[in-house]
Amino acid sequence: MNSAVQAAQIFHALGDPTRRAIVERVSHQPRSVSALAEPLGITLTAVTQHLRVLEQCRLVRTEKIGRVRTCSLDPAGLMTVERWIADCRSAWDKRLDRLGDLLDED
Fold this sequence. Notes:
Layout: H1 3-14, H2 17-28, E1 31-32, H3 33-40, H4 44-56, E2 60-65, E3 68-73, H5 75-105
Antiparallel strand pairs: 1-3, 2-3
């Protein structure tokens, strides 16, 4: 899958405030699904659905040990966004350089 499509999926996932809150919380330390649900005031089922979206984008990974599912940050998704931003920055730098060259000609 190309990085622009992956970045779009990540931005879509992060467009939801609940998912952003989950990513923020697991960025500090791994947390159980129940620990994520409690301050959000939503059910475990709802958290699991949000986690599924975040896992598909590779922003979060989960691991089940016994009866406890623990969630942690997956840097792969963030690296995808970082690459996409770098590509955009490079393209815009080239465009601005060409514009500067055109303006300097006069």
